[in-house]
Every structure is written in structure tokens, then in C-alpha cells.
Amino acid sequence: MRFKDVFSIIGPAMVGPSSSHTAGAARIGRAARQVLGELPLAAEVTFFGSFAATYQGHGTDRAIIGGLLDYATDDHRLPDSLELAAEAGMEISFRQGSGLFPHPNTVRLQLDGREEGSRLTLTGISIGGGNIEIVDIDGFAVKLTGMYPTVLIRHMDYLGVLASVTDVMRSGAFNIGHMSLDRKNRSGSALTVLELDEPATPELLEELAALPAVTSVKLVNLNDSKQAEKGKGNTP
Amino acid sequence: MNFQTLSQLAVLCEERGLGIGALMLEEQSAESGRSAAQEFATMREYYGVMKEAVHRGMNEDTTSRSGLTGLDAQRVGAYNTSAEPCLGGPAGQAMAYALAVSEVNASMGRIIATPTAGSCGIIPGVFLSCQERFGWADDYMVSGLFAAGAIGYVIANNSFVSGAEGGCQAEVGSAIGMAAGALTELRGGTPAQAVHAVGLALKNTLGLICDPVGGLVEIPCIVRNGFGAVTALAAADMALAGVRSVIPSDEVIKVMLEVGSAMPEKHRETAGGGLAQTPTGRRIMQDLRNKKS
Q1: Which residues in chain A touch residue B109, judged by CB atoms under 8 angstroms apart?
Q2: How far apart are the C-alpha atoms of A39 and B39, rounded to whole Å?
Q3: Claim to verify: residue A208 and residue A117 sit in the same structural domain
Q4: Cross-chain Cβ contact B114/A78 below 8 Å
Q5: Which site among A61, A173, A206, B251 is 20 to 30 Å from B49 CA-CA?
Q6: Which of A1, A2, A5, A9 to probe the B interface (max B CBs under 10 A)?
Q7: Which residue of chain A is at minimal alpha-carbon distance from B145?
Q8: Which of B42, B157, B214 sits opposite A2 (nearest CB)?
Q9: Half-sphere exposure of A79 (CA within 13 A, CB side)
Q10: Can you cite a GO biological process for this protein (chain B) (predicted)?
């Protein structure tokens, strides 16, 4: 079954006009923001395919930037996101990409964070009905749907890292629904993506970050509609 | 879920002595692991968003960013009360409300995708106009949304609900089927009658292409939402009167899959054919491009 429950049919709550070009785009932007872990200082947005052809009419540009501001799909500020991002000091540029791309609705984001060298390149596709897949993070192949709370762990490809990660999950009673690992090369840098049944707690993230060979841990959680509006320390 | 087809859904309802909406709520709660009360509360919030969208579309400026559409809901609303409409009455009201929500969508307002953003006007149009008319409580409407969701769940998993995949028959057609079936139940029809309403409604939208001018969710999407609400009312009436979908509804859903799969790409939300490629459609697209650069 492609569609799992009633809310994949009725919903999401979203700002129009298109579930693929607006809601999906907002979710990709928000996933990128959460992977970066902070409000980007600069964002270079490259649209491909149908996104490139119709992004202004569909507000795909505003949706992506709204996502980078950590807005959910139904946040009433989405239509004004370009102005709000400028006020927050985010530098934005839009490009129309050429060459091969994985899906008719593809966007590539290059983000600069606050710290020296903090940079993220992420490619996302909007597959319809507000559903998305993040397919590439900094050159690592991933399949991140945002349907479930997701933990991203950057680490070195050493023997036993994965075992220590799953140990932490077991002791914290967090069930893993889906898991993938990609590495740049043998003993090189690696990215492990874990989809969980329940949102990870700050304690769990800390415990994972403290493991040897782990360089960073990030949580992507796109299911908390209107979280941004309730003001959980989001800027602006 | 314990059902994959509409006939299984109807049988299950009979076995458990539940309406479609009540059954779907139970199934949803079992699937998600959350309580029925939590799931109901989420849907109730969604109904609130639908109401708000109808209100906004009937009262506020809904001119879209492209400038192509807006305010038609208010035109129809005013005409309904000031003149002697051809349709008028409850159907005219449902039509105006459906246009309203669809216009709010086009102007980047807040809506619920039912099942998609392009078809978001039909269910609120039918639900709110009937609620006002029959004096139904909000919670009763929310149970109706679960019924609509059950029907959409079957259509989506056996065929499709997006214009890009199966043409507008999949998008607006699914919403009409969902609204028709749910309304049949809300009006006291049996699950079997509700299932017939779905088949009756879907038959009338088979073959409808998705041909948005300039690729935007505006022309002809908005008016098709208006028409869709009226069709849903008609299908519910036929089913409540005892009209049956002689071709079983599950078979009609399969036909939609067959027709949509055979549709050329230019008629599946690419703006490569249909209304989008008429001389006027092409001129509008060119104007939009010029505005952009």
C-alpha cells in the first residue's frame, strides 16, 4: 500500500497552491535547515525540471525559504518568507539548474551556516502529495522521507561504530524503523541515517554524539505541524 | 488497514455494525498506535482549517500571485442571493464554498489537501454547505471526514489521486467520490449506498485530463472544484434514492487506473496539452514568463 493512513489522504494542513510544489518544497527546506542545525546565513537554491519551470507561480521559492526558516507546511508566514528571511539576514539566490537530475521536482540547496566552514549541500525531490525524499547530503546517498523522526549521525567508518549506535538505541528503548549507511571510502567519513518510531530525546542525541568516532548528530522531525509558530526558539 | 477495496470496506462495516467513518477511526487508531481521541482531535483541527478557508474565500481578497484568478467565489455567492440562479440553493452554496477554498489555495492561503491541494475545495464545499443546511454538529462532520478518508484511501492505493499521475479524473475525481460517499453516510445512507455513490461519481469524471494553464493550480482547477462539489451532491442524491453503480465501484476505480495510465504525458499536469496549449493558454504562459524575467 502506497498510502498508509487516513492523514495521507486528508491532509497535510498546508499553505497552497500545490502539495508537490509548495508543501513538499517547504518540507525539503525544513529538513535541510534541521540537518544544518541552524538558520543558514546564505542559501543558494537550484531548481530543476518542473520546479524550475513554475517555481514562482507555485511559490516554490517562498516554500523552500520558509522551510529554511523552520516553518511547517501550514505556517501562515510562508507566503512572506523571502522578506522574513532577508530581515533575518539570510542571503538568498535562485538558479535554474541544467544537466541530469533525479526527478521532475528536484531542488539542490547549498547552505552556509554561522561557524567557519559550516556548509551543507542537500538534494531533495518532491514526489507528490507533500511527500518528499532527500536523496543526497554532502555527497552521501541517502533516502530520508521525513515521515518519521530521523537521526543523522556523521562518523568515521571504523569497526563497531554501528554496533555502538544500536546499543545506545536499545538501551534507550528507541525502535529503529529504517536504517542506512553510506561512506565516502573505506575508513573514511560516513553518514548513518536512522528512522525512529518516536522522536529522539535530547539525552539520546547527546549519548550518540559522545560515542567515539561520531563527529555530529542531527535530528530531523517534520511532523510537528505549527511547531515554529509556537515559538520553540526559532528565528526569526 | 483491514480493507483494500470498497466492497471489503462495506462488508467490514456490516460485520462490526459501524458506519464507514467510525470504522476508519478505529482502523486509523490501530495503525498509528495513538488513541482514537487523539486521531479525532487532529481531524477536528483539520475541519477547523477547512472552515476558516471557506470563510476567507467568501470574504477576503483571493487574487492569486499570478493575478490570473480570484474572487469568483464571492461573485457566485452574491449572484446566488441577488438573482434567480439556474442552480442556486444548496448546490449553489456548495459550489461557491468549493470555489472559495480553491481560491484560497491559489493565493497561498492555508488549506487541507483533500486528497491534494488541487482538489482541496470539493470536500469543504460539500461539508460546510450541508452542515449549515442540516444543522449538523462539528463532530458529526469530523466523522464524515474519516469516511471520506477511508474512500480516498481505497482509491489512492488501487488507482491514483494526483493529476500528475492519472489526470484530473484522479485528483478532482477522487475528491468528488470521497465527498459523495461521505455525504451519503452523513445523510443516513448505508455503507453500501455510500460505496455506490463513489462509483456513480467516479463514472462521471473518467477521462478528465489535467491541463493547468501555465502549470499553475488555477485554470481550470478552481472551477473544476466548483463543479465537483455539485457533482458530489448529485451522486449522493442518486445513491440515497436507491440508484446503484451497476459497474461495481471497485471496478470503476480500476478503470480510472487504466484510463489514467493510458493518458499521454501532455495531459498529466505538464501544461503540454489541453487548455494549457490553446492560443490563449500559450499567451498566458508567455506573459508569466515575461513577468518573471
Answers
A1: 15-16
A2: 32
A3: no
A4: no
A5: A61
A6: A9
A7: A10
A8: B157
A9: 16
A10: gluconeogenesis
* Residues A49 and A124 placed together within one structural domain of the fold: yes
The CATH number for B6-292, chosen from 1.10.10, 1.10.3210, 1.10.4100, 3.40.390, is 1.10.4100
Q: Which of A146, A164, A185 is the last residue of a domain?
A: A146
For residue B121, the surrounding DSSP H or E stretch is none
What type of residue is A13?
A
What's the 3-state SS for chain A? Answer: CCCCCHHHCCCCEEECCCHHHHHHHHHHHHHHHHHHCCCCCEEEEEEEHHHHHHCCCCCHHHHHHHHHCCCCCCCCCHHHHHHHHHHCCCEEEEEECCCCCCCCEEEEEEEECCCCCCEEEEEEEEEECCEEEEEEECCEEEEECCCCCEEEEEEECCCCHHHHHHHHHHHCCCCEEEEEEEECCCCCEEEEEEEECCCCCHHHHHHHHCCCCEEEEEEECCCCCCCHHHCCCCCC
Same domain, A102 and A166: no
CA angle B177, B181, B183 (to 5 degrees): 115
- Rg over alpha carbons for chain A, rounded to the nearest Å, is 17
In a domain, A66, yes or no: yes
B67-94: burial string, b at 16+ Cβ within 10 Å, e else = ebbbbbbbebbeebeeeeeeeeebbbbb
- Other CB atoms within a 10 A radius of the CB of residue A38 amount to 14
Write out chain B's pLDDT in tens, 293 residues: 999 999 999 999 999 999 999 999 999 999 888 899 999 999 999 999 999 999 999 999 999 989 999 999 999 999 999 989 999 899 999 999 999 999 999 999 999 999 999 999 999 999 999 999 999 999 999 999 999 999 999 999 999 999 999 999 999 999 999 999 999 999 999 999 999 999 999 999 999 999 999 999 999 999 999 999 999 999 999 999 999 999 999 999 999 999 999 999 999 999 999 999 999 999 999 998 887 66
Neighbour tally for B136: CB within 10 Å: 16
ipTM of the complex: 0.94
CB-CB under 8 Å, A130 with B108: no
